[in-house]
Amino acid sequence: MDRRTTAVRAARAGAALATELFRTGLDAETKESATDYVTEADRRTQERIVDRLAEDYPDETVIGEEGDGRKRLQSGETAWIVDPIDGTTNYVRGMPLWATSVAVVEDGDPVAAANCLPLLGDEYHADTEDAVRDAYRPDGPVDGGDTATVSDTAGLEASLVAPTLRYTGDGAYGSLLGTLSPNVGDVRRFGSAQTTLSLVAGGHLDAAVGISEAYPWDTVAGVHLIERAGGTVTDLAGEPWTPGSEGLVASNGRIHDDLLALL
Prior knowledge:
The protein is α+β, with helices and mostly antiparallel strands. Helix content is 30%, strand content 27%. It contains seven helices and 14 strands. α1 packs antiparallel against α2 and α5 runs parallel beside α6 (216-228). It is globular. The N and C termini lie far apart (42 Å). The mean pLDDT is 90.
């Protein structure tokens, strides 16, 4: 089984279960903050994805957000990266802006990724060639769909830009808004990094910005989709982005240099 097909089918399997459990009154626990939730849906969805990956690649490492497994990539390894429900706060509050995300990297380089946004009816996936946007169909074929393409917005003054960082109360989020708001067309925040990055890949947003280090399950799949859709992704200094970078600037490429200068 090729890796893109496995990523899509594993993400669909997880998304189908998460959808089944959505708005069913699941108890939520908190992790690092009062709005950093985890639910039984997160755990069960990750288990389903891991089981599906093991059918095709039983000997490969899985790095997932939930559970006690390893949380960081190691040099030289092939590893699957799983976020069962990216945007759990939205999920807990009954909002449809969340994604199920699966990616695979070889020595740090993404080679396939799939993001399913089941309540929006969208699915994005890519291997090392083009990214594809398709309707989310849990049992549909993997082939097909339209080529995903980043937007053609050419100026910051007309751009829609979304922060990806979580509100932490330390002033970082407010500072970023204060920098962006007077200089871009408008600012959006969706509460799901993979949803946000998928929207950049699909041309619905012009850029996404994170100003701190993020976990690989929040970023790797979406970064791969944007790059395969013709966009540009760097760290805050304009250097090539890696899962260990501090900061992420992902754009359609046309506004990238101006956005970096602003930040």
